[in-house]
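Field log, afternoon session.

UNIT: design team B
ACTIVITY: writing a sequence onto a fixed backbone
BACKBONE:
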């Protein structure tokens, strides 16, 4: 099994039960939003590249729809950590001006940054609904180390990939996780889990973060990775775990 192939959508049964119904855009079982989140990477224009500007994802012009997961834009850009931008703007990493269940990595982040203020135009904002390629590669290596490369896994594709087909589940092995981009060329999976269900990845169309459910040993490996930027929710001072 060196490639990803369609699996029976009944493999989603345990997630449907855990969430109380179908969630075609991603299953985020409770407790939600409590837990470990990987923040999708963002970038800013370097000091000598100000002629290169980038809009927020919802402002892309029609037709500018090349396949490929969000990724490092390359020369002229530098990684911009969420915590770095929070220190610069005074905004919290996770928006606090909304109800607790909406205090997640999302489009609500950094609400003080607005179009025309100079900063907005120089940032390539994190993608909503897809983990970026570089973060996914780092995470894939950790998952293989934790569970083994031969472990069978299942991927529930994002509803934006399959708007007319309904729920779609793929089956493959952890050794070929990166090959999922060939099958799902615009978004990383909405959910990913091994056959033993020992961990689960979750994102959704309006999220700029990916939640990881799993044992403490796995979560520690992710938090200690030099590339991945993570946050534990709820933040100190937040109300108890919100539910969807």
């Amino acid at each position: 099994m060196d490639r990803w192939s369609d699996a029976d959508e009944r493999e989603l049964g345990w997630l449907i039960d855990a969430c109380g119904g179908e969630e075609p855009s991603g299953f985020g079982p409770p407790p939600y939003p409590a837990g470990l989140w990987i923040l999708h990477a963002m970038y800013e224009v370097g000091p000598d590249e100000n002629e290169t500007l980038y809009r927020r994802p919802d402002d892309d012009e029609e037709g500018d729809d090349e396949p490929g997961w969000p990724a490092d834009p390359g020369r002229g850009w530098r990684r911009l950590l969420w915590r770095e931008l929070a220190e610069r703007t005074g905004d919290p990493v996770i928006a606090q001006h909304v109800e607790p269940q909406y205090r997640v990595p999302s489009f609500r982040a950094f609400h003080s940054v607005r179009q025309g203020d100079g900063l907005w135009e120089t940032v390539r904002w994190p993608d909503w609904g897809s983990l970026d390629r570089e973060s996914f590669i780092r995470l894939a290596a950790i998952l293989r180390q934790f569970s083994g490369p031969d472990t069978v896994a299942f991927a529930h594709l994002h509803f934006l990939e399959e708007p007319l087909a309904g729920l779609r589940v793929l089956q493959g092995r952890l050794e070929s996780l990166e090959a999922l981009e060939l099958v799902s060329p615009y978004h990383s999976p909405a959910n990913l889990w091994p056959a033993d269900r020992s961990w689960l990845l979750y994102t959704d169309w309006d999220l700029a973060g990916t939640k990881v459910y799993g044992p403490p040993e796995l979560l520690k490996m992710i938090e200690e990775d030099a590339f991945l930027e993570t946050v534990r929710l709820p933040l100190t001072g937040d109300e108890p775990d919100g539910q969807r």
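LOG NOTE: Confidence is low (pLDDT under 50) at residues 51-63, 240-244.
NEXT ACTIVITY: expression trials, pending approval
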